[in-house]
Amino acid sequence: KHFAWRACQDILPTRVNLFRKGVNVDVYCPFCGEDYETQTHIFLDCLVAKDIWAKSPFRLNINGRPQKNFVDWCFYLCDGLDDETRGLFFTFLWVIWNSRNKWIFEGIRWNTITMIIYAVDYWRILLEATKQKEGRLTLTKEANETWEPPPVGIVKINTDASLASAEFRGLGAVFRDHLG
Length: 180
Description:
InterPro entries: RNase_H-like_EbsB-rel, RVT-Znf. By secondary structure, this protein is mostly helical. The protein has 7 helices and 2 strands; from the N terminus they run αααααααββ. Helices cover about 50% and strands about 10% of the residues. Helix 3 crosses helix 4, helix 4 crosses helix 7 (about 110-135) and helix 6 crosses helix 7 (about 110-135).
């Protein structure tokens, strides 16, 4: 979910996004070297991405799509997908991103068939694990809604923090002894 959210916000650390943040980096695609590495390029316009989408279970022809950027295309495509297929779609995106990182940081280059097999297998494992987890019934104890004081001589500290954005943050703490 975190990857999908970052991808849909266009904030993955592509080479172009890193360059915009002041990082001195080669901005060209590590897969093909033919264009700037933006999310639109790495997931749609790169020859590797086009090959993956064409050979994937989605059988997508990326050429001639009406959406000009990745985020618009992603929202357009996901609108017509059920939850399970949408999950597989984002798994494919994650595998493209992950294989890009393996190539850059580990020197391991996966071919498109390996990426496709990995994405399908990974999604299948995630689905099975989710179904197994949902199949287990766990009983939880209801939370105690009354405050219990600590023993004499001990201070109880309750804390909470929140981060809504870079501008809005909150932090709170309550210190209480046995008297409250």
